[in-house]
Amino acid sequence: MGDFITMPKLGMTMTEGKIVKWLACEGERIGKGDSIFEVETDKTSLEADALTGGVLLKIYRKEGETVPVNSPVAFVGEEGEMIPDVGNETVFQEENTAPGQQKQACDYDLIVVGAGPGGYVCALRAAQLGAKVAVVERDMPGGTCLNRGCIPTKAYYESARRWREVWDCAQFGIEIQDASFHWERVLERKNGIVDRLRIGIETLLRKNGIERINGNAVIRKADTVEVDGKTYRCRHIVLATGAKAAHAVATAEQLQTTDTVLDMGQLPDSIAIIGGGVIGCEMASILNAFGVRVTIIEALLRILPAMDEEVADCLLKEMRKNGIEVLTGTTCKSITKSGEGYRVVLEDGQEIMPEMVLEAVGRVPECAAFEGLGVELSPEGYVKTDEWMRTSIPTVYAIGDVNGRFQLAHAASAQGILAAEHMFADQKPAAMEMVIPACVFAELEIACAGITEQEAKEKGIPVKVSKFPYSANGKALAMGAGKGFVKVIADERWGEILGVHIIGEGASSLIGEAVMAMRCEATADAAGEAVHAHPTLSEALMEAFLGAGKGALHQ
Amino acid sequence: MGDFITMPKLGMTMTEGKIVKWLACEGERIGKGDSIFEVETDKTSLEADALTGGVLLKIYRKEGETVPVNSPVAFVGEEGEMIPDVGNETVFQEENTAPGQQKQACDYDLIVVGAGPGGYVCALRAAQLGAKVAVVERDMPGGTCLNRGCIPTKAYYESARRWREVWDCAQFGIEIQDASFHWERVLERKNGIVDRLRIGIETLLRKNGIERINGNAVIRKADTVEVDGKTYRCRHIVLATGAKAAHAVATAEQLQTTDTVLDMGQLPDSIAIIGGGVIGCEMASILNAFGVRVTIIEALLRILPAMDEEVADCLLKEMRKNGIEVLTGTTCKSITKSGEGYRVVLEDGQEIMPEMVLEAVGRVPECAAFEGLGVELSPEGYVKTDEWMRTSIPTVYAIGDVNGRFQLAHAASAQGILAAEHMFADQKPAAMEMVIPACVFAELEIACAGITEQEAKEKGIPVKVSKFPYSANGKALAMGAGKGFVKVIADERWGEILGVHIIGEGASSLIGEAVMAMRCEATADAAGEAVHAHPTLSEALMEAFLGAGKGALHQ
């Protein structure tokens, strides 16, 4: 997708500039950083550089014209690409008005729709870069992640971990005669943490001068956001509306989703969880620790289908060992109410009678707010974006779950930062290929980044695979955490690290090192030669790196 | 320190080579990789490259001479440097003998003296590179680290952590009515872990064909190691003899050291720990958790004097809050037996009456085994080494505590690998400046790498310092671990990360990422722009990186 060249803001007080001379002509290929036209302001004259390379497809403004700062003067792209007609586009009329008028017509530089981890982070970064920003949110700031996802489950996870440890402390020299578990306090603690973090976000928004608009946004034009009847004009819009729980099971009954299950007043005796993905596994592990009988029903042949197979297998064994029933390769034929609970009939005829049913079958994009806008969608209904998160309307960006790239809070945040910097930073950020880690907090902790062994095979990449077990790591043994392993996938030809998959204690803290190594394009040897403190869990990572290179030491 | 140029082994079967022509002359400056002489073997003729740069100070072997592989043919160094006389050096006679004789005269390519984390790792790496290796050890393999240091304390640390959690679980929804703690089981568990890891090392040595020689080594010549009357000849020796507890307190009484305190049959009611360094703080935290009344006596004005001041202060506050008495800036005037315990009189007149006294005032190098060898020592008694860990006798290396560079197990291992690769790898390793992390496992976990803020000031390096609190990290709050912070020191001019100091949950797992970033010479911005999974503790590191660069998001 092409990019506009706009009149640069060359000084604090510059509002417009005169195009003195074009240094390139239409059809010419220009490189990033090439001088492409001479600008004259009231103070100075300078050459403006191209911020992107490509073919100069269109020059909108002639020599001698005076153009407001940030208005498009040319369009750069690849041959055959459609050239936007800025004269007739609503979105550019705004930018083409004189600066005085602009102030009046435009309430904000940016309106972000949705205050989840994508939206609020994008707003923060944009404000840090000097933009006037508003965020529209119909619910609580923090989005699914803070209110109905990552944070609540992690709060529960810690209670689950400690409650498990109560029953596994004899080997550590501790004897517990009597202990009890109180769900209402777990719930209360979770609410306290969520409130505290939400207040943190609200404070950050306020401190950064970001306006909060509460209500339902409706977007029909690329420069206008309506919220409960009031209209706000803006230069840019970021769609960060997220996703909502999908319903895949044909039933008349009202099943639990993650929106509701995290706030249940009391724990059920038993639960059937439909879906063995990340959410299903995390909920199963937590509830199992709290004494709930859990059955997972997964349509595919294994749990965590997107993750490394050995990692998923290792978790599966641990879940089953701890009493979770995991049924794979089967789906629900019918779910009906039955007494205090449900009757779930599976395709294979098996019947289970859980007190509660949780549907965790994935999420679908939340596009209601901008149905009338006409941004291009993928066949699955996600907003299509380019590498800087721009939609088919160049001043409208879409970040996070709604663009379907990843369903991960931190990916949304990273996209929000990228979009903000693309809109407002002096130097446009490179649209690099990011290494996006993913974590699962279940019976064992999982963290991974990059490709799996299976993916490498499918893509025909020759790889060297190395695995190092936690059971050979001194710190893991000292912690009583000898379960799990670190697996490194490196390119057989150059040694480059392509994927790292960790299952075991502290995985989510260790993956950062792997991401850093991959981001720096370190070879497995170079990463393994970094000195790792002893005794630490990170030595397992070191050994796995070396194993994919010149050879592990302790194996 | 200069370096020999030796006859290279240019093929699997090559045993000697003829110097056809010198391509450089004495006094000439040569660069690493420059061709310096032409070699002719029975198979081929080639140019030999310099593996180090410098001035070609001496040519030992004339054109036309045939020289065994690995024998010195020239010496490269800096002007004015002493040129070793290889003709008269015992150590080179070995290498100058013809290959047939060599086999007979030389029992091993390498004898490593000491099987601690430096020695056994060095032996493993050397064996992996094809060397015939023996390790001499008078005690148990694993050294201080495994038997009387890192591992035992980490096993205790886990019991301590869990016992502390027993009394802090109400907020997590858990109520414990009655619990008891059993020291003998803690001891037993520790012994089990140490045994298991020791067996692991023994297995590794065996698997790699490394010979174990049990007994006291005596080294008088650079190619001979005597063990209990038996003599072994070798081409290289690595001194990995470690260090032993220092005694700094003038007293006639037998005080505990870390050699003895970790195996005590029962816990005392109270203990005075002399020394507030890493060992003192770790032991204080463990024993305090187990209910022992602890007093630390530190001569300097603060604990952990080598660490970042704010980090040490944060730990000090936490220790005091948990009931550890910490006396700084004072020393012991006298220690005498008194009833079941001791009477400790301090310089300021204060008296304490602990049941036990532990001296943790540092360690001194263990040089007894090679007193007669004549390697050069520093004024403090450490073996002087060059950047590849070679002593003043070029075929004798010294690694780990005995060379006084660091008193850290992983530094010893890294040095062992470096030495092994310098001796036996086809490509000599670069003597890079390694980033060496250090960890402390006390009331809070500490991990750091690189310089402190104070060091930067002393060295006049302009730095940008950034701190991010655990209390603003969602995962930390979810874990009930909101104490501590991450501090990043970056060069103000180029943004390069110079130091990272972490105190708080999981610090020892997080520091690996910081080391990786520093090793890759990432700027604070580049490190902070890496995508960090949410919610994880590593986000605190990310924010601190950004804070030392373009600005933290959540602050």
Protein chain pair with the most extensive contact, residues per chain? A-B, 94 and 94 residues
Would you tell me which CATH topology of the largest domain in chain A applies?
Answer: FAD/NAD(P)-binding domain
What oligomeric state best describes the polypeptide chains here? homodimer
Which class best fits the helix and strand makeup of chain A?
alpha+beta
Given as residue ranges, the uncertain stretches of chain A (5+ residues, pLDDT < 50) are 88-104
CATH superfamily of the largest domain in chain A: FAD/NAD(P)-binding domain
**Mean pLDDT value of chain A:** 92
CATH class of the largest domain in chain A: Alpha Beta
Question: What percentage of amino acids of chain A are in beta strands?
Answer: 25-35%
Main β sheet profile of chain A:
7 strands, mixed
Which architecture name of the largest domain in chain A does CATH use? 3-Layer(bba) Sandwich
Estimated radius of gyration of chain A: 27 Å
Roughly how much helix do the residues of chain A carry, as a percent range? Answer: 25-40%
Note the overall shape of chain A. Answer: globular
Count every beta strand of chain A, where a strand is a DSSP E run of 2 or more residues. 30
Helix count, DSSP H or I runs of 4 or more residues of chain A: 15
Distance between the termini of chain A: 49 Å
